[in-house]
Design goal:
The chain has two helices and seven strands, in the order E-E-E-E-H-E-E-E-H. The protein has 134 residues and is of the alpha+beta class. The chain has one domain: Nucleoside Triphosphate Pyrophosphohydrolase (Alpha-Beta Complex). The termini are far apart. Bound molecules: cytidine-5'-monophosphate.
Length: 134
């Protein structure tokens, strides 16, 4: 059996009121309907920060500068067919207004309410770190 490792990078955008952005995975994607911290797969040759800058622009239409991305923790989760490693960054400064550019729903949520939103199993352990931080 081959072991498949997938590297995804995610970001908690935090607004001035301390609320965190989560986005809903759209129909047609794996885990559709679940809420996640925005991000995406790290492409070969990319640094995780570059991936986030690219994904946040593509998915949400916001511009982030690399020094504004602070690493917080990472998720490590064994799915049936691959193992996911997912660093989580926090970002409090960006340019532009968040827009669901791929038609995805998004919400700004207080950290203590994040558990009200069903998330992929890899994302759930990240919530406690955000609650501690914020
Ligand atoms: O977003 P994308 O579909 O490219 O991510 C690849 C896989 O990583 C998903 O199928 C999902 O299983 C997992 N994932 C996750 N939590 C996220 C993003 C992705 O568990 N926030």
């Amino acid at each position: 059996m081959t072991f498949r490792l997938v590297l995804v990078v995610a970001c908690a955008l935090v607004d001035p009121d301390g609320r965190v952005l989560i986005a809903q995975r759209p129909e047609g994607k794996a885990l559709a309907g679940l809420w996640e911290f925005p991000g995406g797969k790290v492409e070969p040759g990319e640094r995780p920060e570059q991936t986030l800058i690219r994904e946040l622009a593509e998915e949400l239409g916001v511009a982030v500068e690399e020094p504004c991305l602070a690493p917080l923790t990472f998720a490590s989760h064994a799915y049936d067919d691959f193992h996911l490693l997912m660093p989580l960054y926090v970002c409090r400064r960006w340019e532009g207004t968040v827009t669901g550019r791929e038609g995805q729903a998004f919400r700004w949520v207080r950290p203590d309410r994040l558990r009200d939103f069903p998330m992929p199993p890899a994302d759930e352990p990240l919530i406690a770190h955000l609650v501690d931080l914020l």
